[in-house]
Structures are given as C-alpha cells and as structure tokens.
C-alpha cells in the first residue's frame, strides 16, 4: 500500500506542473541497476530486471506530462565489453523489454545505436519492434542500445559521405559545403527535436557522451535514486526544475 503522504505530495506536484513548460524531448540515462542490486545483496541480473520493470511506468509518466519524444539509454558501446555472461543476460532482458513495449501498441519505437555492433538476435529484436510500431501514433521512444555519442557522430559522418558520393560529389565539394545541419540529418535521431531535458539517475553527474551532438542546449537533471527506484515524484521534480530554469541557448 502506498504511503498516503507520498500520494498527497505526488498529487501536489502534478497540480503544480507547468504544462506550458514541459520538455518536448526527454533523454533518460537509466543508471544504477547494478548498484541497486549490490546494495540488496542480489546479482546484476536482478538489478537489470528491476530496471527494465520501471521503463513502461516511466513512459506513461512522460505521456501524462505531455512529453513527445523520449530517448532511453539502455546499453552503451562501452558496456559491450562486459563479461560475456553478464552481457548475454543483459541483452536477453533488453530484447524482452523491447518486445513488451512493442506489444503494448502505444509507443513508436526507434533503435538508436550501432546495430552492427550488436548480436544478430538483439539487432533483429530492435528492428522488429520498430517495424511493429511504425504506424503507432503515440510517444516516440528511441531505444539507445549499443549507443555512444562519438560512435553516433562517426556513423553520421560516414552516412553523409556515402550519400554525397552516391550523388557524385567529390570530397573537396563535401568539405566546402558541409554544415552542422547536414550532419544532424544523419544522426540516429534525425527529424526529431533535440532533447530539452536530460535526466541521469544514480547520483552520477556526467553525460558519458549521451546525445553528445544533440544536447548542446539541453538542461540537465541529476537524481540520487538508482534507476529501479526512480519514482514519479522524482520525474515530476525534474520537470519542475526544468520549468524553473531560464534557457539561454548559449547566450
């Protein structure tokens, strides 16, 4: 049973939410699964499963608040160097999570990462989820698996060069004409608004390369709670903090 004081506080935060200052795009660094498990004497798999169980609820909170796009960082390119046993279990959990989110039929899923670096089974699960939800008119959810900010920019530049080469452009012509917008058009999140707010759980206060290109003007919010313990009130506090800031966009 929920604490009545917690419920009352949550309702108050909802009432105070400024609907005119809700971020369109929220980036979420879901950090702390392993530390959550370790603090309870459990193994890493238990932590990852607890983290996966918190995803759908978080997406519902985003829907309720009026957020349009969410990017979930579930697995970095650095994480691909974990022990084979832990990585295999984590990938199975991610595959199950993505399948469950797709089957809900309420969110439009997009893979955001270097799929070629992932096992065929995992990449296939991400592509199927994208195909199955392509027609869904709902919250857009970028599932960042095998994601790294530098990797994304490298992939974008390679994609841009290939596209221009197919058009017959020379390297000198591309170098002369290249703009930041050209690179943006080849990012994993092309066609989407840049993140207005980036949240990281677990108390770590760094981005670790998350949405490195897109977050130039993002606001950041760092939460002490491990991801499996991240509650709706934590999210509402992040939205309140965002609404209270004066965004300068570099000015």
Automatic annotation (TrEMBL):
Function as written in the Swiss-Prot or TrEMBL entry: Catalyzes the condensation of isopentenyl diphosphate (IPP) with allylic pyrophosphates generating different type of terpenoids.
Protein name: Isoprenyl transferase
Binding site for Mg(2+): 31, 219
Binding locations of substrate: 32-36, 48, 76-78, 82, 200, 206-208
Gene Ontology MF annotations: ditrans,polycis-polyprenyl diphosphate synthase [(2E,6E)-farnesyl diphosphate specific] activity; magnesium ion binding; Z-farnesyl diphosphate synthase activity
UniProt-listed InterPro entries: UPP_synth-like (IPR001441), UPP_synth-like_CS (IPR018520), UPP_synth-like_sf (IPR036424)
Keywords assigned: Magnesium, Metal-binding, Transferase
Top-level enzyme category: transferase
